[in-house]
Amino acid sequence: GWVYARYITGFEELFAEEQPTTETQESTSIQKSESPVGEGGQFVFSHPEGLFSLQMRMGWDNNRENQDYFEKYIFRDPSREMGIWVVHTSSEDYSEDEFYRDLASLLMERSSARTEISPSARRKADSGLDWLYGKVEIKSEPLKIHEYWIKEHAGRLWAVVEVYPQTVTETASKRLSAIRRSFSFGTELDSNQ
Q1: What is the rounded CA–CA span in Å between residue 161 and residue 87?
Q2: How buried is residue 148: exposed, middle or buried, by Cβ count under 10 Å (0-12/13-18/19+)?
Q3: With bands split at pLDDT 50, 70 and 90, how would you rate the model's confidence at 156?
Q4: By the 8 A CB rule, do 164 and 40 touch?
Q5: CA–CA gap between residue 22 and residue 32 (Å, rounded)
Q6: What per-residue string of b and e applies to 100-119 under the rule 16 or more CB within 10 Å gives b?
Q7: Taking the mean position of all CA atoms in its chain, how far away is CA 70?
Q8: d(C-alpha 50, C-alpha 52), whole Å
């Protein structure tokens, strides 16, 4: 549900929701694309400023939120059980591991269920890029899993997060991972991914 996606709004402002913020939200359903729709109803979603792209599926909801220090994209499947989050912020004075710990801790604080945070570890993605990987399990019914893939790139910290219930089918899980693996940095940042 929405509670799982709402936590990454800005570390200082997270619990001050009643005070005015500079946050803006845009919500759309991904139904049409200027990019050609490929096999299986997929197309390339590109960040409006060219910062990143993902191979998305038609029919997924897209919600974008801006805060003073963060930009967050949340992509949810039509059932709203699974999703991909893309969050980025400046990496000035902030490490990948600190970013993971802060994001995971905030998720834990926002959850009403017991939460287990795994230690982070280095993993190579299929693309050959080295990412910081971490996993958070929310012990709700059903168990909700958040897999974090974090990387510093061109002065920004990026978190690509797979969100799914433990009860997800293997086919749906593979589709979700395929979307995460399709993430690529835009040419405006650096052509050397």
Answers
A1: 8
A2: buried
A3: very high
A4: no
A5: 29
A6: beebbebbbebbeeebebee
A7: 12
A8: 6
Q: State pLDDT tens for residues 21-71.
A: 344 555 444 433 445 555 667 888 888 888 999 998 888 988 998 866 778
Q: Is the dihedral of CA 50, 56, 62, 63 positive or negative?
A: negative
Torsion of CA 90, 94, 98, 104, to 10 degrees: -20
SS3 sequence of the chain: CHHHHCCCCCCCCCCCCCCCCCCEEEEEECCCCCCCCCCCCEEEEECCCCCEEEEEECCCEEEEEECCCCEEEEEECCCCCCEEEEEEEECCCCCHHHHHHHHHHHHHHHCCCCEEECCCEEEECCCCCEEEEEEEEECCCCCEEEEEEEEEECCEEEEEEEEEECCCCHHHHHHHHHHHHCCEECCCCCCCC
Q: How many CB atoms lie within 10 A of CB 41?
A: 11
Q: Higher pLDDT residue, 33 or 106? A: 106
Q: Single out the residue of 62, 70, 64 nearest to residue 26, CA to CA.
A: 64
Lookup result for tokens 């913020």: 21
User: Which residue reads 């230690």 in tokens?
Assistant: 119
The structure's pTM equals: 0.76
What residues have CB less than 8 Å from 119, skipping those under 6 apart? Answer: 134
